[in-house]
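Holo-[acyl-carrier-protein] synthase
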Amino acid sequence: MIIGIGNDTESISRVAQIIERQKSFIPFILTPAERVAAAERKGKHRNEYIAGRFSAKEAFSKATGYGIGEKVQWQDIEILNENTGRPVMKIKNFPYHTYVAITHSGDQVNTVVIIERLTLLEKISVKIFPKRGVLS
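Predicted structure tokens:
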């Protein structure tokens, strides 16, 4: 059962300007693993990657209704790519399925996050393996 959907659109050039002005932006928004992945990209691809992660985290905050701050921090959300390139979102202490789509077109990045309630069997699995599926 879907319990939340969030969408966000960001200007890649605006995020790039923030990166230039505020040196603390990247370490504040991205987890250490995301920073490593961003550093592997150059030029516009780096800015697209960072803007995509920022946008996805914003979309997650809209899907939950929490916002960023009180219950969930930027560092609690991590989006890394599988070998196929598909982004996978993990959230610290958040035992729900999350799905994320990130797309770039021109100077825009658009993201969608869907949150799905776990089945009874999956809930039992999370109790047995509490770190499984969530960021530790």
